[in-house]
Specification:
The protein has 30 helices and 4 strands. It is mainly alpha-helical. The chain has a two-stranded antiparallel sheet with strand order 1-2.
Length: 620
């Protein structure tokens, strides 16, 4: 293979400056200073340092990987990575120099002396600090370049291990909440200190994750082949065992996680329910619905009116007892389905952007109606509906005289712990806190999942997918497009009504501000991030877009920025989603094959820009 022994400066300059913009921008808006207060590994790494250094590490890796694939000389490849890291340091260096000459805080309030101190690695002499800054970012580019020379399986294990350590450090406070129920305080201090991992724990997590990842990359295919070679009866039996283990884990999960993390899981579960419903319209039928919050709001308000014990509840109006939560669930679902049916009729002839704008208008109509004086006597207007009852069930303590013949179990249920929490729910049947409400949300999610799986394998599901591919072709083969669209909107609305009903009972009060456009955007985004048409992808997308930001609420002022950046990166790196459906994966692969251009003719010099353009292609 012909080796390129010369440097092509233009792509290096472009890549380095793009990487340098990241720390420059995050420093200018205050992210570096705020994030620097949060340690990932105690005494070794902070989030602020990651924002400054990691872009150089990544660009060095990508540059070296592209040149390595194009057959460049190893020394040229490593030199290019170092140069890219050096160029990435220039924008931040320029910021420090300009601020020294002309203080920038009058224009950029986040460019504070503390920020400059962080960028200079807390050195009193500016030249020393700049030398450390440039040297650190150049070295990071070189380390990224060296990583490109590591064999694929070792490199993948290295990347996975680093990601796991960083995520563990970010979530160390919540890891501490979980572990303190099972291990001693002295041992816990060896793992987590404050809000960060100890260096020993980080090293242990890295080594264990690396070994597991390396083992799976080496023996994973053998394990799959061994499992595929088992008799069908044994495969079914093993699936039952794993499902049983998963079921037990899901039952115990809220008591393992604690109240706060259970609240986060509850929020994720509500979006999973809505995502499974919207996936029918968007992922399967190809109908871009930006007004899905309409169904969510209808379910919540129907529930609030029917089970509220306040003056707006039906009990106070008619002088009867409020309805039970479990009785109004079907009513809320039917009301949402009727709303989806009514809103589907005017948009049957619309496609694409026009459909999105029309459904967006429906969502705003519902929000404004909820705020209007016209409906205020019925649903409270801006004051909302208060005193919404929690779900409850008759517990074993009401059905059986447990205090007489099982006092030990009653005493255990009144204590704190994983088992006692579950026993308390069974004995008393009260869904008062996030740990108990988790089971209501889990039941709702499993119900919607069951319906979605049945629809996915049905004739109606295949009609939706055919319509998504080409409405004209689907109509030509005998599919009733009008009926199919109406069914998609109506059925998808059902899970929105269910989620709204659970949400109203969960929070106890509902206001119009809870049903903004952002709810629809969040549900649509988690479907795109997880993978269009993919049921597992919806769960992964909800965890990424709803769960992770909830766990990092200390950085809530930058939440939407990180949210948008994640969407952009996803569209570039993995446009099919984190866990795409097989159909979407095949479609995306076919589109990429069709869009590939023939390679340029060889004129004696390899095309370095072409190597950089192919950075996202998988290695052999």
């Amino acid at each position: 293979m012909h080796e390129n022994r010369t440097l092509d400066w233009r792509p290096l300059l472009r890549a380095g400056l793009l990487a340098g913009i990241v720390p420059l921008y995050t420093a200018a808006i205050g992210m570096v200073e705020v994030f620097n207060a949060r340690e990932v590994v105690q005494g070794l790494l902070t989030l602020g340092e990651m924002l400054v250094i990691f872009p150089s590490l990544v660009v060095g890796y990508l540059v070296a990987l592209g040149l390595r694939r194009s057959g460049s000389n190893p020394l040229v490849t490593l030199a290019s990575a170092l140069i890219a890291g050096f160029i990435a340091a220039l924008p931040v260096t320029l910021l420090v120099l300009i601020n020294a000459a002309i203080p920038l805080r009058g224009m950029f309030v986040s460019v504070t002396p503390k920020l400059i101190e962080i960028l200079l690695f807390e050195q009193e002499q500016m030249l020393t600090g700049l030398a450390l800054l440039i040297g650190a970012l150049t070295l990071a580019g070189g380390l990224g370049g060296l990583a490109a020379f590591i064999p694929d399986r070792f490199r993948r294990a290295l990347i996975v291990s680093l990601v796991v350590v960083i995520l563990s450090g970010l979530l160390s406070e919540f890891i501490k909440q979980i572990l303190q129920q099972f291990i001693s305080r002295s041992l816990l201090k060896q793992i987590v200190k404050g809000k960060s991992l100890t260096s020993q724990a980080a090293a242990a997590i890295f080594v264990v994750t690396y070994l597991v990842s390396l083992f799976w990359s080496t023996k994973g295919q053998d394990v799959k082949s061994w499992y595929a070679g088992l008799p069908a009866a044994q495969q079914r039996q093993s699936r039952r065992v794993w499902r049983g283990i998963l079921g037990i884990f899901l039952l115990l999960l809220p008591w393992i996680m604690g109240p706060y993390l259970s609240e986060v899981i509850d929020n994720v579960g509500l979006y999973v329910i809505m995502g499974l419903g919207l996936n029918i319209a968007v992922g399967w039928a190809g109908l871009l619905d930006l007004g899905y919050v309409t169904n969510f709001a209808v379910g919540a308000y129907i529930t609030g009116v029917l089970i509220s014990t306040g003056p707006l509840g039906i009990g106070a109006r008619l002088g009867i007892d409020p309805l039970n939560f479990w009785m109004i669930i079907p009513i809320a679902i039917l009301a949402a389905m009727f709303t989806g049916f009514v809103f589907a009729l005017p948009v049957l002839r619309m496609r694409g952007d026009y459909l999105a704008i029309a459904t967006l208008g429906f969502g705003e109509i519902i929000r404004l109606l909820a705020l209007s004086d016209w409906l205020k006597p019925y649903i409270g207007g801006a004051q909302g509906i208060l005193f919404i009852s929690k779900p409850d069930l008759p517990g074993l303590a009401e059905l059986l005289p447990l205090a007489d013949w099982a006092p030990g179990f009653v005493e255990l249920a009144q204590k704190k712990g994983v088992l006692s929490g579950l026993l308390k729910l069974l004995f008393y049947g009260e869904f008062s806190g996030p740990q108990e409400l988790y089971y209501v949300i889990l039941a709702g999610a499993l119900l919607v999942l069951f319906v979605a799986l049945r629809l996915n394998n049905s004739r109606t599901g295949r009609q939706w997918m055919a319509m998504r591919e080409d409405e004209d072709a689907a109509s030509a083969v005998g599919i009733d497009i009008t009926l199919t669209k109406v069914l998609a909107f109506t059925v998808s609305a059902a899970s929105g009504g269910l989620a709204g009903a659970i949400f109203a009972s969960k929070v106890g009060t509902i206001f119009p501000n809870s049903f903004s456009l952002l709810v629809s955007i969040n549900v649509l985004s988690l479907i795109i991030i997880g993978g269009m048409g993919s049921i597992p992808g919806i769960v992964v997308g909800a965890l990424a877009l709803i769960g992770l930001p909830e766990l990092l609420r200390e950085f809530s002022e930058f939440r939407l920025l990180l949210y948008g950046a994640l969407l952009v990166v996803m569209m570039l790196v993995r446009p099919e989603g984190l866990w795409p459906s097989p159909v979407i994966r095949r479609e995306m692969a076919a589109v990429e094959e069709e869009s590939e251009e023939p390679p340029p003719t060889d004129k004696g010099t390899p095309e370095t820009p072409q190597a950089l353009h192919s950075l996202w292609e998988p290695t052999d």
